[in-house]
Fold:
Amino acid sequence: MAVVVARVVRACCGVFPASGKSAVWPVVFAIFAAVFPMCGAAHVQDAGHGGKFGSRAVMDAIWTDAQLRGTEEESKVSSYHQPDLALPDGGCTPLRAQGEGNGVWGNIRSVSLRPDVGKVVALTFDFCELSTKTAGYDGGVIDFLRQRGIPATLFLGGKWMKTHPERAMQLIADPLFEIGNHAWTHGNFALLPVRDATEQVMCTERQYEILRSAVGARLHDGVSHEEFEKIPNGLSLFRLPYGRVADANLDLLRKSGVRIVQWDVVVPEWERISDKFVSEMGIRRGSILLMHATSVPPHTLENLKVIVGFLQKEGYSFATVTELLDMGTPNVHTEGYFRHPGDNVFLDNRYLNYGTAHTPPNGHKPAGSG
Structure:
């Protein structure tokens, strides 16, 4: 279990959680180009799945297919000792009014689908970025999903959107993808004071609004306002960094109107998997699968292809999280965790400044961190 948690954390933070009392600074990041040949003809997703969160007309008006494709250069990850404390332009107050609560107290881990619904699961990908790193963009994963017409829910960190504005705008505009909030700099919601937790949520929301407006500003007269309005004006889903949350921040998120989405299946991304492995992962109707798309794990694309191929042979189709929720009843837990309650508590002591900064190799805190 510790190995599973360590690998998930490394996918977001770029390091294995340290053992003992010290934390490990990433001296060298393994950089992988997740660009593989795309095989087979494009497949269109099942009717009713995907295509509800953006506009193809908007995408075609702004970007060519070549501009949408990922590049090897974007897979690179950089880290630095002094935190990047910059916030969105204009501050962190979203322009839209926040919700009055969604009635869900807890973390949605999966969905119990209605009997009339077939075999459907949701693929989700986190785009994590701490204050002491600039994460990559795994274009191979996104290119594969687009080619195969597979919808997915992407949880974008606010700082990641700020450091990758062009890619973030493309994802925001793409009708195949639903966008969720993954906090500004991956703060640990079990540790953050409510004020800081609010900033992590609101700064990400504000950055999304900035980039959505930037998409609109680049449109020409040939694209209607109705097409642009198909892009959601805010983020209704939230994913907890480290899967951790305290009751006060759980209440904050509920009152803000977002739904907290976790997972019931953690996909290995640090080693290759087989069909047999996938058959033993516990995937079932209504499952929510966790992966990453920041180019840190080396085998995300390869394993995604195996999972998609296996599940399609088993008669599964794919939906976004919101679509999955519309098909049944969410399975909600008050505690956030990877596979078993409590399996991520040790992460509270692994990173600085409420989980937003790495610990450098000499153990000294970087300037600007708590």
Observations:
- DSSP finds twelve helices and twelve strands in the chain.
- The chain has a mean pLDDT of 85.
- The CA atoms of residues 2 and 114 lie 34 Å apart.
- Residues 194-217 form the longest helix (24 residues).
